[in-house]
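Morning F.,

Quick status update on the modeling queue. The single chain you submitted on Monday has been processed. Sequence for confirmation:
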Amino acid sequence: MKRAALSIALACATALTHAGEPADAREATADLYARIGAGDLAGVARYLPTDGFTELSGDAQAPHRLDAGAFAGLFESGARIALRVVDVQEQDLGDTAVVTGVRVGAITPVGTAAVEMKAPFTMVWTRRGQGWQLRHVHLSAAVPVR
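Structure tokens below.
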């Protein structure tokens, strides 16, 4: 009994050492989308390299770069953001991870009706210290959720 209590106490102490940092890129992905939905610019920025990350979306002809300024503009636009990720999988490659899943929800501009969409995605993350930084996102073409 005492050994079990000590193990639990040590586990809690270890968790507190890295409190606030997702343990893996899969958790970082879910947290990133939660922070986007909350309009939390500082929370989103913690996952962004200084020069941002590249994104290739289903309807784009070429990749583009997103940085903290792009998210600030989105949050200031008044758009309703309701996004979540499902079926999230991670391939851990050491200091790099590839995360796949499906993004579900919508970013709805002011004055328009929300249409929930789903789009499979692939993300490339790199570990920096105890944290994760997003390097690239590929979003497949979005389709309405049925």
